[in-house]
Specification:
Layout (H helix, E strand, L loop, with lengths): L9 E8 L13 H8 L6 E3 L2 H7 L1 E8 L1 H5 L11 H6 L2 H15 L9 E8 H9 L1 H17 L2
Antiparallel strand pairs: 1-4, 2-3, 3-4
Length: about 150
């Protein structure tokens, strides 16, 4: 599968970190370090430049707070409801509102939400990452803990 003579295997790899605490927490990451790790590629979702892709075998990256999983619309559209549905106060609007109310009043407020970092990688690099994932996660957690101790 990693032999490029037969085509190129590209995999999406999502890595999530979920906090385990007695109190509910949301979005435990250091935003400044995350933004720096994207470099000059812009927002927290970016296609990599061709030169960067050739160097890293990563062609896309996206990072987001997992609280999004609890609050995104049912159809995963980028808007809560259509303006026309809200204006008409039609059944679609009411259904989406009721689902949001149920979510906010229900279990969502009792959960902690971590963060997700997604990469689109070549098969070769994905295998390397997966083989070393535990060590990379421990290293990242250690660096994060060290940063929290800094003045």
């Amino acid at each position: 599968m990693t032999d490029q003579r037969h085509g190129e295997l590209v995999l999406d790899l999502g890595i999530t970190f979920h906090p385990i605490f007695t109190e509910s927490l949301v979005g435990l990451w250091r935003l400044r370090q995350l933004e720096v790790s994207f470099g000059r590629y812009g927002a927290l979702q970016a296609e990599m430049a061709q030169e960067r892709t050739r160097q890293t075998h990563a062609c896309f990256r996206s990072a987001y707070n997992l609280a999004y999983e609890a609050v995104h619309p049912n159809d995963n559209s980028p808007v809560f409801v259509l303006d026309s549905d809200a204006y008409a106060c039609n059944p679609q609007f009411m259904q989406e509102c009721n689902l949001a109310i149920e979510m906010y009043e229900g279990k969502a407020k009792q959960h902690s939400y971590g963060v997700c970092d997604k990469y689109r990688l070549s098969g070769f690099v994905a295998i390397e990452v997966l083989d070393n994932l535990e060590a990379l996660a421990v290293q990242g957690a250690t660096e994060n803990a060290d940063l929290s101790q800094a003045p």
